[in-house]
Amino acid sequence: MPLTQAQVTKEATGATQAAARVIEGVWRIESARIIGALARMLRNVGLAEELAQDALVSALERWPEAGIPDNPAAWLMTVAKNRALDHLRHATLQRNKEPELTYEIETLLQDAAPDLDATVADDIGDDLLRLMFIACHPVLSTEARVALTLRLLGGLTTDEIAHAFLVSEATVAQRIVRAKRTLAEAKVPFEIPRTDQLVARLASVLQVIYLIYNEGYSASAGGDWMRPKLCDEALRLGRILAGLLPQESEVHGLVALMEIQSSRARARLGPQGEPVLLLEQDRSRWDQLLIRRGLAALERAGQLGEGYGPYALQAAIAACHARALTAERTDWPRIAALYDALAQLMPSPVVELNRAVVLGMAYGPAAGLELVDALVASAALRNYHLLPSVRGDLLARLGRMDEACAEFKQAAELTNNLRERALLLARAQGCAGDGG
Fold first, then answer.
1. How far apart are the C-alpha atoms of 218 and 225, rounded to whole Å?
2. Tens of pLDDT, residues 277-303
3. Hey, how many other C-beta atoms are within 10 angstroms of the C-beta on 67?
């Protein structure tokens, strides 16, 4: 069974701080590669993770006394690989108990070991890609895909995932166990999908990374406005995927979106951790390196595709904000045109709500309110807190303060994020004061 953070901490008792830091850092970076290599050998993701965890325990036991190896990642891979070979040897002997076969089996396994070393080194990229497609397999629920991806590819412990999504550790553990069982029962092959299946399966992978990032960027509940660790993990996974599938336009589009959005992280929080909205942010605090990386990824997406896909379109919208030195210089008509394209390509009530915000900025609040009122009438977003929030903002800009106050209060009641609730109540109070 996967180790909990408490178990890791217990195993690490007595380790020097230096060894503990190295072990944690190497595991976070290398665990996906190790699990991927073992999964290819064993054709069993759950077993692969267990044996990789065994290698981690060995490191926790040996490194504090023996010292940190010259190549910690290679040490972990070798130990994990040997665990896998032992398992294969035992399983094979169990299936073939005849004494005359024992020597032949042992010889085959020993002969395979040197080739295996080379294969593990040569196929790391493919192993990671296979692991991504398995963790995000459509046979799993969205919640299970997210948990398994963060577990196998992000290296997060179950309690870290639980904390990030504000669910119990037992719930996360159950999702992961069920996901592994489902994959095993469905006999999901450890392979990269064929060309005719790649696009559909890739969409699942991108969706999971996108969901992880969005939860980190604007936490759906709890007392934190952002959860940076989730943003970092999603961006790391996106960059890996872009390196593994360099010809896929939408992979670069998603990376571009995350890079540009992440550039605002420092400016999105006030001194006490309170939210700072986009138009009020100090743009001198935006990370220009991340913006440049995002714009470069967006350019690659444009070069590879016949036109922007949904992620690249969202990245292009973010790029409009990134290029504006001040909020007043934002090219709102350009953003409105991009949202029109996004609405045609990926129609949804949430896209329409965002488009209403942009229309309100580009052509006046009355234009945005007309679209928002249509969404209210359709009840498509009845319990979505941003609907009354957007409507309140547009009403306030039209001077209809009493109505705006009521909308902000309703939005505050609907959100589960404490920081956002405080912001909305403050806006409601502001409207009440202006209306008085």
1. 6
2. 999 999 999 999 999 999 999 999 999
3. 11
| Whole-number Å distance between alpha carbons of 436 and 195 | 64
Which residue, 280, 275, 282, 218, is CA-closest to 422? 275
Cβ-Cβ contacts under 8 Å for 233 (sequence gap 6 or more)? 150, 154, 156, 212, 216
> What gap in Å lies between CA 333 and CA 318, rounded to an integer?
14
Residue of 249, 242, 234, 235 lying closest to 199 (CA atoms): 249
Q: Please, which residues bridge with residue 416 across strands?
A: 221
**Structure tokens of 147?**
């948990």
- Please report where in the chains the tokens 């942009």 appear, as a residue: 358
Q: How far is CA 102 from the centre of its chain?
A: 46
* Helix, strand, coil shares, percent, the chain, to 5: 75, 0, 20
Tell me the Cα Rg of the chain: 25
Greatest CA span in the chain, whole angstroms? 95
Tokens in use for 337? 């045109």
* Nearest to 235, CA basis, from 220, 221, 251, 246: 251
Residue 11 pLDDT > 70, yes or no? Answer: no
C-alpha–C-alpha distance, residues 14 and 33, integer Å: 28
203 contacts 249 by C-beta, under 8 angstroms: no
CA 345, 346, 351, 352 dihedral sign is positive
pLDDT tens sequence across 37-66: 898 888 888 899 999 989 888 888 888 888
